[in-house]
Q: What sequence folds into this?
């Protein structure tokens, strides 16, 4: 792992901010288009869990990720009907370049969600997000997005939005 | 707790009263009669394999510790120091040589015996007067149940026909044993706990609550959402509040329930045939695991084990873990991913169940308080063992749950 230049860091940050906005706004197709064919979208219960041994909140390969988006787009996914109001803040970025040319970006996030589907609760989600990205044309693609919630092993309410 | 609540009025043959979900008095009464005085599922032996292994669980309003002691026996203790009431175990699982209270250092053995008191010069009572409160405990094929007092009904009578449901879960393994080591997802519902067992064996909602699932995903459940006449699954009331959706008659091929084929999981099929003989193994592999609730808080959710935890009149937590099969570790990865797909806050199914339950919790306060549960009353059949069977979409299971609930709450069981 090596450090990245200031310019590359700014490019990576801009990509992550764009990804966050598409998730916040439930722009399902545009968000899905950011993913590489080998993408893995993963929310473990806790840091250090091995997904071959322990259950996760979600551990989507690219096929299941497409299924997730397809379900959200049916118009009958009641747990996102209507979609949650969300505006996440991402900060404390750290960047590295791997030997294979992929980039790793880590950051903290703070995600206020207005859960409008049943309880009309204002909820706060928080944790660490870790991306593995590579260059694709003029932008990047996502090989891995791992979200480690600070309370993932505790009772968690509905989380069917894009986290 | 003495109450003036007339459960025979609130639960009738064909309808129930909405206050059963929304009344704080009824909830308090349930914590006493169901979650304190009766058999409740606590955990599985495979979760505490070695001496000193423990898990903590919430039974009604009480935290309890389930631990394997030095003799190999399993004990369930109240998670409360007998001195001044502090919590002995703050973690959900772990291994201990003994339980030391962090407040004043009292030490209890794994069997619950008070072993040592700090600064004993000032303490005159015999130690054995202050052993931990140990619950009445019994188990069937590794499923451990407990009660704070000796229940009016024996463990055998309580489980009744549900033994055959547990047998069917265990017999999915070539060794006859399940292994719950995959970790627990805990999903919060802002709804009364009873909506969870009710919904989990409700065969009527699949086409509606899970319409997005049916549209987006090609699964075995697609065989259960056609026209009324084409749905071959059946609903069962096994008695004592134990209920089931039996999908087996609707499956189209062997291993439908796993979304797999005998070729893809050949080593599993071979070991099952070796263990049970070809005929019985092939029937198990066709029929699949049960989809059944054991009153009040255990759900044998096909290849998952689920626990219902009440946390308030208007809130509950559903625990879920994949049901790994001893002797078939090659299925673990698939079972993990299937469990995530079905159960939990981000899952394709349960996320929507929670939202619908939460809407019900609000809507039940509006207008006419009654909920109709008459569906299928005219077409049920009862067999020689008293098991009632009907069309998968019928409310036979819901009636089974509520009529047993009524007998428990009215003090008849």
A:
């Amino acid at each position: 792992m090596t450090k990245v230049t200031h310019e590359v860091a700014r490019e990576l940050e801009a990509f992550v901010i764009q990804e966050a906005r598409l998730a916040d706004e439930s722009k399902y197709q545009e968000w899905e288009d950011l993913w590489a064919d080998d993408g893995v979208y993963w929310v473990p219960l806790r840091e250090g869990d091995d997904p071959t041994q322990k259950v996760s909140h979600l551990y989507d390969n690219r096929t299941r990720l497409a299924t997730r988006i397809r379900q959200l787009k049916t118009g009958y996914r009641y747990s996102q009907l209507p979609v949650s109001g969300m505006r996440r803040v991402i900060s404390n970025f750290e960047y590295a370049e791997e030997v294979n040319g992929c980039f790793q970006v880590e950051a903290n996030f703070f995600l206020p969600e207005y859960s409008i589907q049943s309880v009309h609760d204002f909820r706060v989600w928080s944790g660490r997000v870790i991306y593995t990205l590579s260059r694709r044309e003029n932008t990047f693609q996502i090989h891995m997005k791992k979200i480690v919630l600070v309370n993932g092993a505790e009772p968690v309410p509905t989380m069917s939005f894009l986290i | 707790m003495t109450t003036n609540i007339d459960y025979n009025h609130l639960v009738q043959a064909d309808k129930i009263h909405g206050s059963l979900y929304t009344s704080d008095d009824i909830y308090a009464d349930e914590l006493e009669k169901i979650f304190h005085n009766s058999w409740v599922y606590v955990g599985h032996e495979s979760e505490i394999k070695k001496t000193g292994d423990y898990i903590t669980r919430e039974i009604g309003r009480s935290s309890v510790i389930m631990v394997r002691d030095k003799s190999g026996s399993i004990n369930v203790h109240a998670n409360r120091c007998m001195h001044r009431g502090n919590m002995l175990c703050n973690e959900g699982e772990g291994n201990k040589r003994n339980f030391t209270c962090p407040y004043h250092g009292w030490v209890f053995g794994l069997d619950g015996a008070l072993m040592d008191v700090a600064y004993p010069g000032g303490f005159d009572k015999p130690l054995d007067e202050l052993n931990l409160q140990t619950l009445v405990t019994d188990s069937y094929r590794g499923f451990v149940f407990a009660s704070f007092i000796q229940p009016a009904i024996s463990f055998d009578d309580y489980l009744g026909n549900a033994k055959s449901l547990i047998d069917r879960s265990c017999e999915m393994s070539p060794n006859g044993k399940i292994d719950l080591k995959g970790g627990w997802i805990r999903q919060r519902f802002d709804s009364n706990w009873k909506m969870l067992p009710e919904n989990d064996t409700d065969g009527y909602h699949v086409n509606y609550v899970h319409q997005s699932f049916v549209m987006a995903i090609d699964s075995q459940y697609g065989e259960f959402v056609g026209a009324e006449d084409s749905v071959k699954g059946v609903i069962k009331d096994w008695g004592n509040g134990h209920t089931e959706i039996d999908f087996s008659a609707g499956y189209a091929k062997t291993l439908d329930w796993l979304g797999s084929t005998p070729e893809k999981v050949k080593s599993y099929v071979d070991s099952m045939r070796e263990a049970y003989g070809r005929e019985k193994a092939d029937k198990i592999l066709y029929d699949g695991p049960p989809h059944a609730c054991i009153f009040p808080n255990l759900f044998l959710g096909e290849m998952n084990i689920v626990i219902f935890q009440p946390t308030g009149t208007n809130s509950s937590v559903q625990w879920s873990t994949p049901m790994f099969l001893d002797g078939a570790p090659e299925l673990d990865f698939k079972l993990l991913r299937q469990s995530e797909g079905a159960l939990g806050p981000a899952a394709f199914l349960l996320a929507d169940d929670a939202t619908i339950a939460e809407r019900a919790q609000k809507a039940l306060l509006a207008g006419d308080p009654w909920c109709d549960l008459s569906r299928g009353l005219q077409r049920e059949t009862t067999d020689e063992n008293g098991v009632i069977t009907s069309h998968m979409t019928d409310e036979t299971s819901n009636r089974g749950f509520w009529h047993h609930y009524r007998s428990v709450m009215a003090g008849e069981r």
Remarks:
- Chain B has 13 helices and 23 strands.
- The first strand of chain B starts at residue 15 and ends at 17.
